[in-house]
Amino acid sequence: MSSPRDDNGWSKLYPDLLRSIFESLSCLDFHRARTVCSNWYAVSRTCPLYPWRIVIRGKNSVLFDPIQDKIYTKNLLGIDLSKIHCLASYGNWILIVDLRLDFHLLNVFTRERINLPSLESSLRGDRPFRFIRNDDFGYFLELYGTKFLLTWNDFRFEKTAILWVNGRNGDYIVAWAIKQFYIFSYKKIGNDDVGDGNDDKRWSITCTQCEDMAYKDNKLYVYTFDHYINIFDFSGYCPKETMEENPYLNHPFRFVDTIYKLRLAVTRAGEVLIVLSIVGLDKKFCIYKLNLKIGDWEIVESLGDEMLIFGHRVTIRAPDKDISGGGLKSNSICFLYDDHLSDHHLTMKTQPICGVFDLATSTITWHTRLEDLSSKVCWFVPGYA
Question: Which residue range forms the structural domain that includes residue 179?
């Protein structure tokens, strides 16, 4: 992100001064300012962020900034967005799949769209898998002699997917679980992806159990049904399992209480967290990490200056105070209505679609503005990179 402007005095402002300027800007002005030069971009990455919500209704979408209490209406694709599933988000980008099982990356602010190559492009004679389009249902996946159907409804409830986007050069990685036993991934690095111009080499399939996964710094962490965490190295174009450098290999996660949902997340420092939505306990959400000294999993009492969005697989540095009244601050967990079982909404006039759980007080702040059960709602974090 170099620029001739890097050489003038504006690019050499003291980081503390520049950070205070950034934190006084509105969200949209913040994202414009961070693109001025490489130094401004680097400083912007140290500023606290907070999540927005995108509400998808028909052909239009509503972006809601909860801190500024502002609403932005967007026609994102010019198509009926009720016919898409949002699988993952990263910064200003969301990963979506349409009825034909075509995958797209979409920038919710600029409306830039990146169409991933079709699944048929993975077809090659020496591959152990291939996708064959079925116009009525989706795709048939042939894998190691087994053939099964993959449809749009497979992504309706099963949204185990990750997205990573480099905001400076446009590189990206996507991965999603298929039938909970395979991970299909695509990596775009540089102008020619893997350097040889062949689309079919961009796709990879990994055979592994997958209850959930998280990605950071070229590593994909996969939680298996037998309670282990596997690590896959994405530094090359084809993911490879890492055995020797996996500290979780001999330390399965055991939890005796009733788990409603389990998600992985990775902190800014690279620590892997197991985040639980619990049934029947006052705490509602619990977080665990592996204590390498004793070789056991222990509860995380505080996230410090970070917050996480349940299911978004990474933590962010967040404001230390709730300035909106919606609970959006550090040491909290944002979630959607189907991430947590609760009867609190029975006493409320409006059905809550999402909420924020405060780890310090074990209380939930419910959010009801804009949404209804017919809408598709996603949290995303503008500017995260």
Answer: 80-233
Structure-block tokens of residue 377: 């709602």
Return the bridge partners of 93, or none. 90, 107
Strand partners, 213: 222
For residues 200 and 112, membership in a common domain is answered with yes
State the pairing for strand pair 229-233/219-223. Answer: antiparallel
Tokens of 151: 């449809």
Q: Could you tell me the two tokens for 237?
A: 């174009």
Gap between the Cα atoms of 86 and 104, Å rounded: 10
Q: For residue 298, count CB atoms less than 10 angstroms from its CB and return exposed for 0-12, middle for 13-18, buried for 19 or more.
A: exposed
Largest CA distance in the chain: 63
Which residues, at least 6 apart from 14, have a Cβ–Cβ distance to it below 8 Å? none
Percent of the chain with pLDDT over 90: 35
Residue for token pair 């509602």: 284
Q: Are residues 84 and 229 in the same domain?
A: yes
CA 37, CA 59: separation in Å to the nearest integer?
Answer: 35
What would the pLDDT profile of 39-54 be if each residue is shown by its tens digit? Answer: 888 888 888 889 998 8
In a domain? residue 226: yes
Looking only at the bridges linking them, the beta strands covering 306-309 and 332-336 are parallel
Three-state SS at 318:
coil
Strand 70-74 and strand 161-165: the pairing is unpaired
Q: Say which CATH number the domain at 222 has.
A: 2.40.128
pLDDT for res 63: 85
Give pLDDT tens digits for 206-216.
Answer: 889 999 999 99
Q: For residues 123 and 296, give the distance between their C-alpha atoms in angstroms, rounded to a whole number.
A: 43
Structure confidence at residue 1 as a pLDDT band (50, 70, 90)? very low
Name the pLDDT band for 279 (thresholds 50, 70, 90).
Answer: confident
